[in-house]
Amino acid sequence: MADLATESPRTAVDPANWTCPAPLRDQPVVVMGHGGGGALSAELVQQVFAPAYGNPTLAALTDSAVLHLGGARLAFSTDSYVVRPLFFPGGSVGDLAVNGTVNDLAMSGARPAYLSTAFILEEGVELAVVERVARAVGAAAEAAGVTVATGDTKVVESGHGDGVYVTTAGVGLVPDGVDIRPQRARPGDVVLVSGPIGLHGVAVMSVREGLEFGVEIASDTAPLADLVAAMLAVTPDLHVLRDPTRGGLGASLNEIARASGTGVRLVERAIPVPDEVANACGFLGLDPLYVANEGRLVAFVPPEHAEAVLAAMRAHQQGAGAARVGECVADHPGMVVVATGLGGTRVLDLPLGEQLPRIC
Amino acid sequence: MADLATESPRTAVDPANWTCPAPLRDQPVVVMGHGGGGALSAELVQQVFAPAYGNPTLAALTDSAVLHLGGARLAFSTDSYVVRPLFFPGGSVGDLAVNGTVNDLAMSGARPAYLSTAFILEEGVELAVVERVARAVGAAAEAAGVTVATGDTKVVESGHGDGVYVTTAGVGLVPDGVDIRPQRARPGDVVLVSGPIGLHGVAVMSVREGLEFGVEIASDTAPLADLVAAMLAVTPDLHVLRDPTRGGLGASLNEIARASGTGVRLVERAIPVPDEVANACGFLGLDPLYVANEGRLVAFVPPEHAEAVLAAMRAHQQGAGAARVGECVADHPGMVVVATGLGGTRVLDLPLGEQLPRIC
Fold first, then answer.
1. Which residues of A touch B53 (CB under 8 A)?
2. Last residue of a domain, one of A142, A176, A210
3. Would B258 be classed as within a structural domain?
4. Å from B57 to nearest chain A CA?
5. Could you give the CA distance from residue B88 to residue B76 in angstroms, rounded to a whole number?
6. Candidate from A12, A74, A124 with C-beta closest to B70
7. In this structure, what are the phi and psi dihedrals at residue A131, rounded to the nearest 5 degrees?
8. pLDDT in tens, A78-88
9. Is the predicted ipTM greater than 0.85, yes or no?
10. How far is CA B48 from CA A35, A81, A342, in A?
11. Which ranges carry the PurM-like N-terminal domain (chains A, B) (predicted)?
């Protein structure tokens, strides 16, 4: 095995391949799609990390884990943020780093409490940029009601980073009686989304590529723990919560369908896709169902509670645009299908990689 | 403020400056020394992160934080690992990522329980390299008695990483009656180190630079939680524990002296510096007191317990080479001095940056 000290990994890249987010799976090198939250990411976890770590929490590797420690049920989660550019309409890498980890904790029903931040800085980046990111972290933490309790900073040589990478981890408490996880989806569950989808991915892409769509599209990045608390106040028996980030709604629903063995049936016209997202996606050749969101959640709710939970969501700032978009069915277990506007159905599969790399 | 999307940070680097680990402090850009664990790192925390985060846990930003959550006292810590090369005699980035965070938790007296791992992979790195790092993480976690509970993977384009960066966070429980922190050092405390110093830094440097010193020098990377438990079994009243990683023993002792306002007096000939480390440091122009360790701790112990704690350390595999190296004094508060072999004394100051960048 080549030692990275003596042989640059760049020499292993196939030049015909290096811009493709979803290339051949038999390539023995890391490709952009391995970071996309789709099938390639799942394969990396299942084939590389799961066997290496060999423990029963493997299934939780893409989620927040719920742990028993000191008599409490603790949610614990981490994510690295490598978004490019660092600042975009509606937010920055600092907002994502806080909200993303806060939201991962909230998707277990936890009340987020403490965060850590670990910065990997590239030599030569302006200290003013670092300061701007740090201030965004501080402001987002205050808005989300969490405390940054511990941190670390490393510096790498110019050409081995991209200004600022931030990794956050978070801990929170899971209330008694709450058991929210993908395996709990079951036929009959109503599928709700908390608002319009696709804004984050399109916002980042438009500024990165210098595109103008007539209106400025801003990221939806926001903390969702308060919204989740409002939903849990209706009933602690929410079955599944998920924030559809990398891979979008399509990836999240497929993961839930596969984990639970239920089918999911969406109604296309019920899915809130803003006109500006639809137009931008049409222009860019993207499917809004696979575009990343950073301030939205999808909920699987028992039918008897669905109307009340939806009303509670709509009464909350972060859920004002909430909608019922589908349901769980006993047909086609493990699969997601979409009833189209023309009366047909199409299969919504797990994406292979990511349409837009470096989105978060 | 320049947006990193449109202006590469590399253009901000002064070419006359880019290899210097400890350059001018009035440069408004990040330099390698900001990641070195010395005075520049401390300034970054105090001048950038502390004001931005604005919370009372700021002093803990370079340590594990002790939090109250769900009725338990929880230690929480994070570190990014950007060591170059990824594999070196005695260990790898995977071992460091586990042992480093386990040790940060142990330095609060905590029993480490769960870890998270977040990988930032560079496009084009061989999957076999990722797998080798993941296996090292799994093996080190098993050896340290901790569970990897959650994780994340991101991929960045070739030329924006260095193969594999790993960020770990960890949580553990602090036993009742244990209160270990730098502020508790006081005159009279005996200073103990758990074994020979300087091995990790010299091991990494020798393989990075292709140097041969006649004997292979292996990193000391090891988990220290069991050793700490053995010490706490003697008395829960340990005052301070610290693993002298970046910046070495010199940086750790200065931080403790400043945090507590006590003076520290070391006896040079009592400090266990292996011959091969002394020889390599002489050749490279390094001071072994500032070279990183990854499997050593320094303890400040009340004098009445010092002999018993030292005996317990020597009876443990990770403390077999433990030694009494000095004491806390009322003189020169906040300063560290070394009694040299020639009968004089010298001040051991906080290093500015790091002698060896990318050491962990």
1. 134, 137-138, 141, 148
2. A176
3. yes
4. 6
5. 28
6. A74
7. -65, -40
8. 999 999 999 99
9. yes
10. 30, 19, 56
11. 63-174
